Amino acid sequence: MHSKPPFSALENAVTAEDGVLLRQMTEADLQSAHALSAELRWPHRATDWEQVFVHSEGLVAERDGQILATALRWRWGPAHATIGLVIVTPACQGRRIGHRLMKALLDDMDNCTVLLHATAEGRGLYERLGFVRTGEVRQHQGIAQPTPLIALPSGWRLRPAGQNETAALQALDMNARGMPRHALIEDLLTQADACVVLDHDGTQQGFAMLRRFGRGHIIGPVIAPDAEGAKALISHLAGMNAGHFTRIDIDFDSGLTEWLENIGLLRVDAPTTMVRGSALQHPLGAPRIFALVTQAVG
Questions:
Q1: Which domain, by its residues, includes 181?
Q2: pTM
Q3: Cβ distance 233 to 224 under 8 Å?
């Protein structure tokens, strides 16, 4: 799967003066990559790394055979990408290793719209590389509580996703996220503990998934035509996971922050949404993305 390097920046790669070499990430690096994220107290399991790596192209920075840093990109068609899991071991931060990794990731993506979610520490680096702030994410988590279900108008209902609905859910995701992530959505549907569809008179208008991730479960993506629809999807899945650790990463502009805190999912972080290149496009009247798959994938 990764036998041919996709990074033009690596064609003439040489070891830097500080002894650091950039190279393509392989499956054999996943254990070391997981150790790096654990060092920063990120919650990712080894399985979480494996699941996102399948769809990614990654780089590592190594010195004397030791991996010091990682950075991954996910290309969604010829014009869109996301970047995430940009990690530098604390002992090597401040040495421009992250900058070198990002330059290599972006080397052949001048014509792409690239999305990422930046930590406070990384925001300055991304701004210098041409990313601009477009919004914020709110990470909420906690022990899910039994949650009152949201009443839906006549003709609207929640139901489990059917086996033949993959294409419809892929289309909803593409219109909401602004990127064609068909392979990702198909994969997530096979992994999810539950996927619930928001249906209006027999037509899919939104959906949400409950999946294993990190310390417990994550609700995401959540795609809906409006905030009430998103609440209905989220309250259903949070209720299914009541008594267990639950996380959700929402778009701050969704207006769901206060409601999530009222159902026991407290805000713990606020990454910055940043884009390089053209703005993401959403068809008029299309549903919107209320919760991410993960901060890395978008």
A1: 139-269+279-291
A2: 0.93
A3: yes
